[in-house]
Design goal:
The complex is a heterodimer. By secondary structure, chain A is an all-beta fold. Chain A is built from no helices and eleven strands. Helix content of chain A is about 0%, strand content about 55%. The radius of gyration of chain A is 13 Å and the shape is globular. Chain B is about 0% helix and about 50% strand. In chain B, the strands form two sheets. In chain B, strands 2, 4, 5, 9, 10 and 11 form a six-stranded mixed beta sheet that branches. In chain B, strands 1-3-8-7-6 form a five-stranded antiparallel beta sheet, with no helix packed on it. In chain B, a hairpin with an 8-residue loop joins strand 9 and strand 10. Chain B is globular and about 40 Å long. Classes of the chains: A mainly beta, B mainly beta. The interface of A and B includes residues 41 and 105 of A.
């Protein structure tokens, strides 16, 4: 398996623009997680899905952020409108929906909002 | 109180020494504990996990868990310069399958 695939790897956008990050989980995994990593706050869980259903979105910072998982092999994280404070590395991870299972991370998307 | 706490470091150890990384967590319902390693500019990768109280060894790495004290540690024996990275502790609060991470400890292994 190719692992968790994220795109784009890097994104530079202007404040106010819409940004869409994409993720393809590992085939067979039925849990998907979106994390944001910054120097100040570390790795924060934004939202996670089990079997394509959002289970916990309490980490989504505000209404400008939204996430979807239309099928088992694809998820998006959208920021509209983007702000400079959204600049971070966004990771997608996937795992089996079971207790005590590790999450496998994608390579991340480095987002810069200017 | 943060859910998962780690000393940010940097922790500097000489090559060949034992590096000891520590983590505390707040949710007593947590049942599994993970150590991830993250090199600069890369994604986190799993080193090892532990579920039961006591020690678990895997090569040069030993994870230690004390649920009564809500404490997890990672020991790296015979530290190598290639071990220089940030080590992230993760737990699953409430026993579900989501992982909550600490902010990580930066380890530097010096020649």
């Amino acid at each position: 398996d190719a692992g968790v695939i994220q795109s784009p790897r890097h994104e530079v956008t202007e404040m106010g623009q819409e940004v869409t990050l994409r993720c393809k989980p590992i085939s067979g995994h039925n849990s998907l997680f979106w994390y944001r990593q910054t120097m100040m706050r570390g790795l924060e869980l934004l939202i996670y899905f089990n079997n394509n259903v959002p289970i916990d979105d309490s980490g989504m910072p505000e209404d400008r952020f939204s996430a979807k998982m239309p099928n088992a092999s694809f998820s998006t994280l959208k920021i509209q409108p983007s702000e400079p404070r959204d600049s971070a590395v966004y990771f997608c991870a996937s795992s089996y929906q079971a207790m005590n299972t590790e999450a496998f991370f994608g390579q991340g998307t480095r987002l810069t909002v200017v | 109180q943060k859910e998962v706490e780690q000393n940010s470091g940097p922790l500097s150890v000489p090559e060949g020494a034992i590096a000891s990384l520590n983590c505390t967590y707040s949710d007593r319902g947590s049942q599994s504990f993970f150590w991830y390693r993250q090199y600069s500019g890369k994604s986190p990768e799993l080193i090892m996990f532990i579920y039961s109280n006591g020690d678990k060894e895997d090569g040069r790495f030993t994870a230690q868990l004390n649920k009564a004290s809500q404490y997890v540690s990672l020991l790296i024996r015979d530290s190598q310069p290639s071990d220089s990275a940030t080590y992230l502790c993760a737990v699953n609060p409430g026993g579900g399958n989501k992982l909550t991470f600490g902010t990580g400890t930066q380890l530097k292994v010096e020649l």
